[in-house]
Amino acid sequence: MKLAMIGAGYVGLVTAACFAEMGNEVICVDADAAKVEALEQGRIPIYEPGLEAYVKRNHAEQRLFFTTELAPAIQKSLVCFIAVGTPQDRDGSADLSMVLAVAKEIGKAMDGYKVIVEKSTVPVGTARQVRQVIEAELRARGENFEFDVVSNPEFLKEGTAIDDFMKPDRVVAGCDEVRVAELMRELYAPFTRTNRPIIIMDVVSAELTKYAANAFLATKISFINELANICSRTGANITKVRQGIGSDPRIGALFLFPGLGYGGSCFPKDMQALIHTAKAHDYKPRLLEAAESINQDQRKIFVDTIRSHFKDDLQGKVFAVWGLSFKPQTDDIREAPALTILSRLLEAGARIQAYDPEAMGATRQYFGDRQDVSYAGSTYEALEGADALIICTEWTKFREPDFDRMRAVLKTPVIFDGRNLYNPQKLAKLGFKYYYIGQKVD
Ligand SMILES: NC(=O)c1ccc[n+]([C@@H]2O[C@H](COP(=O)([O-])OP(=O)(O)OC[C@H]3O[C@@H](n4cnc5c(N)ncnc54)[C@H](O)[C@@H]3O)[C@@H](O)[C@H]2O)c1
């Protein structure tokens, strides 16, 4: 099939590359000329394992193209995916300006029947708005082309995006017309061959399904963090409690790790957007609001632990920080807990020596050039002369470090572990003061 992918970000680029890999011809459109030029030259603007090989191969074999020109891409394609950002607006709702701007451009460029697919995460009712915007443009042009709007939310996870897309747990397609349901089945057939379901539903339910999935997962994280906070008051061991409940298949062991709370480009904004949608429909989403507020507190509790260890005096203290991205295997720092934690420490007069395998470039851009934040070439370099180590992201290379070397390089052997990577008894024996999530508060 001939496809246009509008937006070449974490979702758009992966989706485009995977569709091309299955033999489709995909034109990837992005408004960011520098990004398009980089892609043209084989440079991948994001860190996503496996993506580079897919992009390069399919570009070289002329199934994957990059351009800033939207109109020709629309005209050459039957299916037009909208995969632009839907960031949080000031009132918590999803900001649809980019989605609707693309819809307008599609309406201006269309020259025949098209299938418009919402790939971006968009609230209930967006397909209707997209339809209205396109219809208005067609009316203004005196044209009357038919088109369908499909909701096809994306469930890939950054860090394993290629695998998630190639072997999805399920594909959800919101199709109000039978003809597009068949087309979506055909498009996704290579990905769903091995009993992976394609679930066809109405558009509104598909739009809500994406938020439902993210809200459930976010709530699961807040649930275990709340349990960790109860453990810290009762002396129960959160790791044991987690294992004790996670082995029940109704609960499940995945996504049940206590930590610094959820971050990233999706959960925080999608929770806010769903809360906003519920309220706009006169429903108070108490569970979602509680999950959100537990999530916010989790970072504060961690910073309070650091402050309390240093008797509220962080002026001039040096912190080594391991991990900046919102989770391992990505360079994405959007809403990363590390950013909030580092900002609080810097405000209190601390200095940061950070290390992350992939996210230092993005973090440097975020904080700008400043004297009190430096970036180390290795985990151990970050520790040099530091008053403590703070772990914000659970990259695998942080799991089995050389503790003797760490103790030798740190000024004082103190670790604040926001991801519960180590055995507390072992670290105590090795002479570390080790703080972790869910630890008993004296
Ligand atoms: N990142 C994820 O893991 C993930 C997972 C599932 C769903 N989503 C959803 O997918 C959508 C995209 O997320 P993302 O992380 O890929 O965003 P992103 O910011 O990485 O990418 C969006 C891209 O769209 C481009 N763009 C913006 N306006 C444009 C326009 N008018 N024409 C062409 N290109 C334009 C931007 O330049 C950017 O490259 C969001 O709605 C998000 O919630 C993201």
Write structural notes for this entry.
The chain is α/β, with parallel strands linked by helices and 442 residues long. It has helices at residues 10-21, 33-40, 51-60, 70-76, 97-109, 126-141, 161-166, 178-188, 203-234, 238-246, 267-280, 286-309, 337-347, 360-367, 379-383, 403-409, 424-429, and strands at 2-6, 25-29, 64-67, 79-82, 114-118, 147-151, 171-174, 198-201, 318-322, 351-355, 373-375, 388-391, 414-417, 433-436. The protein has a 6-stranded parallel sheet, with helices on both faces. Strands 11-10-9-12-13-14 form a 6-stranded parallel sheet. Helix 9 (203-234) packs across helix 11 (267-280) and helix 9 (203-234) runs parallel beside helix 12 (286-309). The mean pLDDT is 97.
Q: What global shape is seen?
A: globular
Number of helices: 17
Task: Give the strand content.
Answer: 5-15%
Identify low-pLDDT runs: none
Q: What is the averaged pLDDT score?
A: 97
**Ligand set:** nicotinamide-adenine-dinucleotide
Integer-rounded radius of gyration: 24 Å
How far is it from the N-terminal to the C-terminal residue, by CA?
63 Å
- Strand line-up across the major sheet: 3-2-1-4-5-6
Structural class: alpha/beta
Main β-sheet, in a few words?
6 strands, parallel
Approximately how much helix is present in the residues?
A: 40-55%
